Amino acid sequence: MSLIFSVVMKPEIIRVSLEGFLQKGIRKMTIQKLVEPLGISTKTVYKYFANKEDLLRDCLVLHYTGLMDQVAARTTQNANAVVTLENIWEQAIRADFGVNRIFYHDLNYYYPALQDEILKTQGGQLEKFILQLIKKGILEGHFRKELDPQVIFLAITVLYRSLTRTKDFLKFNHSPEELVRQTVQVYLRGICTEKGLKYLKK
Fold first, then answer.
1. Positive/negative CA dihedral, 90, 91, 92, 95
2. Can you tell me the distance from the alpha carbon of 156 to that of 51, in angstroms, rounded to the nearest whole number?
């Protein structure tokens, strides 16, 4: 196998496998099903990855890197901090409960340790972006100035994990939009000033 083929093939296997995981979930997808669109054998895959979990690890790195890039892009825009934070949360919850619901369910239920491992490496970057956003909101007068940005970030993380990692909210059978209204927006209203609330209402 040529070096050029090796350099090109591994990222392509990761990209195509990630698409397969996102569309059909993780648990039911075999290595063979994942690489079917590439027309290669499972033997080729095992030259790069020890097993399915090893491949999934690289797929998660690619996936979360993309999500971090989206968050970074939002936080560097000149949009209001209240609106940006709300949008980031909505987007994340919709991803968990929306078109990728099976993927996130499988990830949260069958591979929580692997997800935590990836998020540990990516989490620092996410925390940095969100803290910058909260501090920006405080400086703008949209978030209450007496609040501790790190406490706010932790509260966001705990609420998000409760929504996505547990079955506590499933019994209510609410849509992702309704969950956002009854959790995210309630919390955001609590940390907003009167000035910030005007933007949230819009």
1. positive
2. 34
Length in residues, the chain: 202
Q: Find out whether 137 and 143 touch, Cβ atoms under 8 Å.
A: yes
pLDDT in tens, 145-194: 999 999 999 998 888 888 877 778 888 988 877 888 898 889 999 999 99
Angle among Cα 104, 105, 111 to the nearest 5 degrees reads 80
The yes-or-no verdict on residue 3 having pLDDT over 60 is no
- Secondary structure (3-state) at 192: strand
**In this structure, are residues 109 and 52 in contact, taking their beta carbons and an 8 Å threshold?**
no
Q: Which domains does the chain have, with CATH numbers?
A: 60-201 (1.10.357)
Q: What is the pLDDT of residues 56-95, one digit of tens each?
A: 999 999 998 888 888 777 776 667 899 899 888 888 877 7
